[in-house]
Amino acid sequence: MTGPSIVWLRDDLRLADNPALRAAVDRGEPLLVLFVLDEESPGMRPLGGAARWWLHHSLASLDERLRDRGAALVLRLGPAERVVAETVTDAGAGAVFWNRRYGGPERAIDTALKASLRDRGIEVRSFAASVLFEPWTVTTGAGTPFSVYTPFWRACLAGPAPRTPLAEPRHVSGATDAVASDDLDAWGLLPRNPDWAGGLRDAWEPGELAARRRLREFLDDDLAGYDRSRDEPAAGATSLLSPRLRWGELSPHTVWRETLAGGHGGAFLSELGWREFAWHTLYRFPDLATDNLRPEFDAFPWPPLDEAALTAWRRGRTGVPLVDAGMRELWTTGFMHNRVRMVTASFLIKNLLVDWRLGEQWYWDTLVDADAASNPFNWQWVAGSGADAAPYFRVFNPELQAKKFDPDRRYIGEWAPEHVSENPPEPIVDLGETRKAALAAYEHVKQAARATKGPA
């Protein structure tokens, strides 16, 4: 069927290594690049505040880049299945291209839309773009999904190598005049009253060009020392690529290939592998943000919620130096060092005995890189309820973690300076006593699991 092509972008806000965009350009018809903000379809999770801020600026940057090449970005709001179908009608489109998604609600939308459009005679094609290895391509010898990271990643590396990234198109023949577009500012993605995003503006520059610069800086300046310094929050050794990958300003294939070309990357590439493992887990367990992956943890005896303790944790006012520093870095910049993320999560779950889902929701709202896979996956890992989980009895001691990874207290001094003063605040809980309570709760889970299984 003739007519313009529609490229429906989602978490792939880039021109380089974008298979859907490349296919649309190669089709030879004028094309329309569409982004739909869908927070209404069943199961679609509304974005958190920090993510909305990033999305606004990434979309603005993408629109500018498209205009430089002869097209523009069309923005529409509403349930994606309906909105995309309407856009096809409005544009008289003959084909729709997109890059695949792996969450349950997203797959349901895409499957239904693909069927309905093809019934109308519209060409529809989808592509692999957001993960290195698609979930159904990596399985155990028995054909089942992996539940432990090390054999999973070994199987990934033993298979075909990730594909070579695609070059970005130099010219995009736009068909934007065919349809109306929403005004980005009218979506209200940016905070206004109050405007709490000053720290985000100071810390980040969203968009594909900034993402490429950051990748180059990391590979040139930081990758060689990554293995040695990545766990030190004051060292500045982390890649800072996670929000770029979350929004698809960089593809994992680009990061993979350019890292290998630099001659380093063992530990760093394994972090890409952990991201892959999270997406593979979400694919087979779409309720990852709400349900324990290991059902025996449904018996965990969470006590009544201590609202004051939860508020203290959110605000970085627990009296525990590394926890407070991390939570304030998060609130200010929309980011937290990965080692500190584990410590703060462990403290909430295992010292305050607060359900991991409440912590996951806070990170979802405050992290610029929170995505549907990694955010709940990592919370469940710390809780002990997820895939390849850290055992519940492994409780991160935030004081020992600080001594090991922030020995000169530079990170703590930057984000929680009262803890390096003569009169630091007292912790809101006793770390030793709360650890004992956590272990007792874990024992309850084990006993409940044994009772369920019955005698051998």
From TrEMBL:
<dbReference type="InterPro" id="IPR018394">
    <property type="entry name" value="DNA_photolyase_1_CS_C"/>
</dbReference>
<feature type="site" description="Electron transfer via tryptophanyl radical">
    <location>
        <position position="356"/>
    </location>
</feature>
<feature type="binding site">
    <location>
        <begin position="369"/>
        <end position="371"/>
    </location>
    <ligand>
        <name>FAD</name>
    </ligand>
</feature>
<keyword id="KW-0285">Flavoprotein</keyword>
<feature type="binding site">
    <location>
        <position position="268"/>
    </location>
    <ligand>
        <name>FAD</name>
    </ligand>
</feature>
<dbReference type="GO" id="GO:0009416">
    <property type="term" value="P:response to light stimulus"/>
</dbReference>
<dbReference type="Pfam" id="PF00875">
    <property type="entry name" value="DNA_photolyase"/>
</dbReference>
<dbReference type="InterPro" id="IPR036155">
    <property type="entry name" value="Crypto/Photolyase_N_sf"/>
</dbReference>
<dbReference type="GO" id="GO:0003904">
    <property type="term" value="F:deoxyribodipyrimidine photo-lyase activity"/>
</dbReference>
<dbReference type="GO" id="GO:0071949">
    <property type="term" value="F:FAD binding"/>
</dbReference>
<dbReference type="GO" id="GO:0006139">
    <property type="term" value="P:nucleobase-containing compound metabolic process"/>
</dbReference>
<dbReference type="Pfam" id="PF03441">
    <property type="entry name" value="FAD_binding_7"/>
</dbReference>
<feature type="site" description="Electron transfer via tryptophanyl radical">
    <location>
        <position position="302"/>
    </location>
</feature>
<dbReference type="InterPro" id="IPR036134">
    <property type="entry name" value="Crypto/Photolyase_FAD-like_sf"/>
</dbReference>
<keyword id="KW-0274">FAD</keyword>
<keyword id="KW-0456">Lyase</keyword>
<feature type="domain" description="Photolyase/cryptochrome alpha/beta">
    <location>
        <begin position="3"/>
        <end position="132"/>
    </location>
</feature>
<dbReference type="InterPro" id="IPR006050">
    <property type="entry name" value="DNA_photolyase_N"/>
</dbReference>
<feature type="binding site">
    <location>
        <position position="226"/>
    </location>
    <ligand>
        <name>FAD</name>
    </ligand>
</feature>
<feature type="site" description="Electron transfer via tryptophanyl radical">
    <location>
        <position position="379"/>
    </location>
</feature>
<dbReference type="GO" id="GO:0003677">
    <property type="term" value="F:DNA binding"/>
</dbReference>
<dbReference type="InterPro" id="IPR014729">
    <property type="entry name" value="Rossmann-like_a/b/a_fold"/>
</dbReference>
<protein>
    <submittedName>
        <fullName>Deoxyribodipyrimidine photo-lyase</fullName>
        <ecNumber>4.1.99.3</ecNumber>
    </submittedName>
</protein>
<dbReference type="InterPro" id="IPR005101">
    <property type="entry name" value="Cryptochr/Photolyase_FAD-bd"/>
</dbReference>
<dbReference type="InterPro" id="IPR002081">
    <property type="entry name" value="Cryptochrome/DNA_photolyase_1"/>
</dbReference>
<comment type="similarity">
    <text>Belongs to the DNA photolyase family.</text>
</comment>
<feature type="binding site">
    <location>
        <begin position="238"/>
        <end position="242"/>
    </location>
    <ligand>
        <name>FAD</name>
    </ligand>
</feature>
<keyword id="KW-0157">Chromophore</keyword>
<dbReference type="GO" id="GO:0006950">
    <property type="term" value="P:response to stress"/>
</dbReference>
